[in-house]
Design a protein that fits this description.
- The chain has 15 helices and 16 strands.
- With 381 residues, it is an alpha+beta fold.
- Strands 6-5-7-8-12-13-4-14 form an 8-stranded mixed beta sheet, with helices on both faces.
- Helix 13 runs antiparallel to helix 14 and helix 14 packs across helix 15.
- The C terminus is likely disordered.
């Protein structure tokens, strides 16, 4: 069987599926990698899939011309956003001026892309999704809207932005606004599905799946913590320690200061602003184009200067990809031989896992940490 691109380097952008007129391509998800496999019985050798693939193209990337930190002027929007609310505020501004926005949502058991034409529809985009999402079905609609002289804002991971950029073509980029999110890597959705299933949650039955509230990284299902409050659950441990990403993420060609988008958005980690503002969430934005800079400045956001070198230091993906842990294969080998998700995390991250289990026990015993040690809390009525 022939692959669309180099083996185990598929990003899962799904553009090849959309360009193939013979349904000759299948995306095979093995947990540790994606591969776009061509069915020789259906393939007519037109080469369209290989021409559209970002791994087979040189994609133009530009250095930032301006960089800011800040937050949404709406205190409510800032409060419900993972960071400072830049992405959703940009999206609301864009629909209010008559544009169409496309970004990731969770619904009906999957992480996929939908379109929004008003503020209420934009609300569905709020919140971080630390999992690979599926953009299949969006490319032709984006291109059609651009051809109809309509402005489109696409918000996604850098690899997804690159795919949209290639599919649209150079001629239509004037009406297309691209926002990429600083990404440290993304796991197959089979990861979160298995983790939730073992915790008693069924992905298809959930209305909400959350991964983060400000600087608290924990999975929630229908607004309830999947694990004990106060500790990292096993999925968050795996994600934050870079062990559950697909293989292509560790050689990501978009992990650099030059970006493929008009605007790059992330967290302003290590900000020089007050701790009070940091607790509320501060976004980081890098603008690579004049139209991206104008869009950001016209939106309802508060903007402040930021030190670019400091931003890169605290967001390594602006300089290099995440490093594959030495125990990566051990973690995935365990998963693929039937080991439970948490036991696989224990194998791959033994010390980190143990520390969280100790903390969970101490919290259950009503111990708290402070003043250089652990103290028991007594409850009196």
């Amino acid at each position: 069987m022939e692959n669309v691109c180099k083996e185990s380097q598929c990003t899962g952008c799904m553009a090849c599926l959309e360009v193939c007129t013979k349904n000759a391509i299948e995306i095979r998800d093995t947990l540790r990698n994606y591969n776009a496999v061509i069915d020789p019985a259906k393939c007519i050798k037109c080469g369209a899939c290989q021409r559209i693939c970002q791994n087979n193209n040189i994609i133009n990337a530009e250095k930032p011309i301006a960089w800011f930190q800040g937050w949404a002027k709406s205190a409510k929007q800032r409060a419900v956003s993972s960071s400072g609310g830049f992405a959703v505020t940009l999206a609301k501004h864009f629909v209010n001026r008559g544009g169409l926005v496309c970004s990731c949502v969770f619904s009906e058991g999957s992480f996929h892309f939908e379109f929004a034409e008003n503020e209420n529809e934009v609300e569905r985009f709020t919140g971080s999704k630390y999992v690979k999402s599926n953009p299949q079905g969006i490319y032709k609609k984006i291109k059609w809207c651009l051809q109809e002289d309509r402005e489109v804002l696409f918000i996604g991971l850098p690899c997804q932005v690159a795919a949209v950029k290639i599919f649209a073509g150079e001629r239509l980029l004037k009406k297309l606004y691209l926002v990429d999110l600083i990404c440290h890597g993304s796991p197959s959705p089979k990861n979160i599905e298995q983790f939730l299933s073992e915790a008693g949650y069924h992905l298809a039955e959930l209305i909400q799946v959350g991964f983060r509230k400000k600087d608290v990284f924990r999975v929630t299902g229908n607004e309830h913590y999947v694990d004990s409050p106060g500790v990292y659950d096993c999925y968050s441990l795996a994600f934050l320690n870079c062990i559950n990403y697909t293989e292509n993420c560790y050689s990501c060609c978009f992990a650099k200061s030059e970006r493929v988008s008009d605007i790059t958005i992330g967290d302003s980690w290590g900000s020089n602003l007050s701790q009070e503002e940091q607790d509320k969430g501060i976004s980081l934005a890098l603008c690579q184009t004049d139209k991206g800079k104008r869009l950001l400045q016209d939106a309802e956001v508060e903007l402040f200067p930021v030190d670019l070198e400091n931003a890169i230091e605290y967001n390594h993906q602006l300089e290099r990809p995440s490093v594959k842990p030495d125990s990566y294969d051990e973690f995935f080998d365990a998963l693929q031989t039937g080991t439970s998700y948490c036991k696989a995390v224990k194998k791959g991250l033994p010390r980190t896992y143990r520390n969280q289990q100790i903390k969970k026990i101490l919290l259950k015993l009503r111990f708290i940490r402070g003043g250089g040690g652990w103290y028991i809390v007594t409850v009196t009525k």
